[in-house]
Design goal:
Length: 128
């Protein structure tokens, strides 16, 4: 069982349709609760789990889309595991917080995986 309360990753230049294809590869079914110009709310189903998901296009600049699973009941044990999975599926650049949020942590430090699968950490100030 996951110990994280939620998972949030950022995908670079990834269309919503491609994110939906990735979701379909992991969840039995899902429904659109609300879809606006840039904010899209979904409810995902996996077994008995119901997982709220918010996708925000252009969340950071014009290139980065936020993908926020508002539950710990996902197929991944961490943000970075989720990011690696999306990278493998779509060959896209993905970022996530380098460590789970905690008081005193440097929230400008981010983990990144490139289109070529190279991992690193970087400073991404004011990303949130």
């Amino acid at each position: 069982m996951n110990t994280v309360k939620d998972i949030e990753i950022y995908a670079k230049n990834m269309p919503l349709a491609d994110i939906e294809k990735w979701l379909s590869s992991h969840f039995n079914q899902w429904e659109v609760l609300n879809s606006g110009k840039v904010v899209h709310d979904f409810l995902l189903y996996k077994g008995d789990a119901r997982i709220p998901l918010m996708i925000v296009e252009n969340a950071v600049g014009k290139a980065w889309t936020s993908i926020w699973f508002k539950s710990g009941q996902t197929p991944w044990e961490s943000d970075t595991a989720c990011g690696k999975d999306l990278n493998k599926f779509a060959n896209c650049r993905v970022r996530a917080n380098a460590a789970p949020w905690a008081d005193g942590e440097d929230m400008d430090e981010w983990w990144q995986i490139t289109e070529q699968g190279e991992e690193s950490t970087l400073s991404w100030p004011n990303a949130l």
